[in-house]
Amino acid sequence: MYSLLLALIYISFISLGLPDSLLGSGWPVMHEAFGVPVSYMGIVTMVISGCTILSSLVSDKLTTKFSTRIVTVVSVFLSALSLLGFSFAASFWMLIVFSVPYGLGAGAIDAALNNYVALHCSSRHMSWLHCFWGVGTIVSPFVMSYAITASSWNSGYRIVSYIQFGIGVLLLLT
Question: Membrane topology type, per the record (predicted)?
Fold first, then answer.
């Protein structure tokens, strides 16, 4: 049972890492589609980061009130919905709107799972946890590159969103 729990936590951290490098790999095409300067990526990044920080700060209260499992499941689905929103965004301001729930979901799951692993597992497992985050950040540029080559940047966000939904369902059912 312990091994299954660790596997689910590691999968959750892959899911946390997946969206983190999508914006950087897709922005050279995205900014042209929205007709905004390259520098506007900084605005999107600041909104995501600000919401991530805010969510991380209240994560303890959320996990105390609802449990690490509920916070994790809700955060994964929040991220999945946000990425789906990114994939359908027709203007720059829509990216900003969808950046808010994306950042909130990312911050909550990050702090909640880090805290859980720190309290219940060895330092070795904490290292593996962050290794799996790295797996997510490494995979997503390949997904975006494939999507841009085959279709458009929108497809890259949609593919990662579907992966997130799949992980969310897996977490919900276990």
Answer: Multi-pass membrane protein
Sorted by sequence, the CB contacts under 8 Å of residue 111 that are 6+ apart come out as 55, 56, 59, 60
pLDDT tens readout for residues 87-101? 999 999 999 999 999
Q: Give pLDDT tens digits for 102-115.
A: 999 999 988 898 89
The domain spans of the chain are: 2-173
Write the CATH number of the domain with boundaries 2-173: 1.20.1250.20
Distance, CA of 113 to chain centre = 13
Q: Is the pTM of this model over 0.90?
A: yes
